[in-house]
Fold this protein.
Amino acid sequence: MEQRRKLITMDEFTIQETRQFPQATGELSGLLRDIGLACKMINKQVRKAGLVDILGKHGATNVQGEEQMKLDVYANETLISVLKNSTDCAGIASEENDDHVCYSDTYSLNSKYVVLFDPLDGSSNIDVNASIGTIFAIYRRVSEIGQPVTREDFLQPGNRLMAAGYVIFGSSTMMVYATRLSVNGFTLEPSIGEFCLSHPNIKCPEKGKIYSINQGNSSKYDDGLRAYLNYCMEINKEEGRPYSHRYIGSMVADMHRTLIKGGIFMYPADTSSPNGKLRLQYECNPMAFLMEAAGGKSSYGGGNILDIVPTELHQRTPIFIGSKNMVNKALEFMNEDAMVGK
Ligand code: AHM
Ligand code: MG
């Protein structure tokens, strides 16, 4: 008797999706599978994080005589080595490394994609058992195939991304990724060790009710943004109540909520960080690409995040991202303030 199977694994889904492009070679699906594999390995370690008192603190030696590695170091090394063994990745750049890494075996040299990642974003939240995540971005290289990758491969604007996404290590583990076609979410089914389609065709609600920002820094924000925050706290005509404020301080967790429920996430410039805190290539571009593919919007305050042409591997940018109505309203307040200042 034929058994009906409801689960669609991420592999099955990506292969079906990329079949829609007759020129597709399967390399992009292979790469997404490899990123998924690395994140399953990271997930295994993250799930053990609370057991440090039993298994030994990071930096200490465990009962097997092995040294415990810090989780963000482990995540970085895992992604670098899994992607090195992948046949679909020519090189990587990581938030944790000063420079890009070129893979020099024949398969890698002949690959057309490069990957940028923040291996474990929000890792300061590990101590308090809050959600953390891995963020990734995939570009088609601009250097010649067959040759080592170059810096230019990693300095492409976000509007050239082929795919981007994140894995959230939360109450469940989920991989959410976007291509130009759609945004889809896959929940890790631990009993079979596979990411399975759980959130097909995600759309960010056009109207949101939640604003997310480190409001403790507001004395350092400019007047336009402060006026917008006051607006969020006032009784809203449409809602009959102020917007809710939610801020975990872990970008992946704050963005995941913003994507699913709608809202705005902001990490602005302030008087001590004129370019904000978050990194363009590892955090902001992948999230902006994903948000746009889900029907939302992102801005650095003066234009679309995805149009910034990076000049440095680790450059930072302010970011306002989420539901269109909230991002537009925030920009209105900030632009009005800029006009008054002229
Ligand atoms: P990290 O890359 O060192 O983990 O820092 C990035 C994190 C983001 O996840 C989060 O949005 C932000 O820093 C929070 O910063 P703050 O504590 O200044 O509000
Ligand atoms: Mg980070």
Summary: The chain has a mean pLDDT of 92. The pocket of AHM (ligand 1) is lined by residues 118, 121-123, 214, 249-251, 267, 277 (CB under 6 Å). The chain has two domains: 10-199, 210-340.
